[in-house]
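seq as requested:
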Amino acid sequence: MIMTSVFRGDRLKRTREAARLTQTELAERVGAGTNQIYRYEKGETDPSAEVLAALAKELGVSADWLLGLVDDPKAGVSDEELSPRERQLLRAFRSDDYKEMMRIAAQEAD
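struct tokens:
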């Protein structure tokens, strides 16, 4: 099975350039190597979830947009769209409480 990249390196490059950042500057800000930023932009490799989140935050765009899942760079999910269970999972995730995340995920769906 051939794996294809879903990460949109063209969007990363365009947004980085609009922010007037060099590849080196962006790499330093997100904790990646300059060569890695180059590879992301060329579509040679995909960033890890951690780097994807850091790129989105640093550039002020959504990770979904960088992945090509939405057309709006600022698109995101509003709190109203989340179920109570999803909110619990998000709170546990944001506080790095992986044990709580597993407990919530293991619960029967309402």
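The chain has a mean pLDDT of 85.
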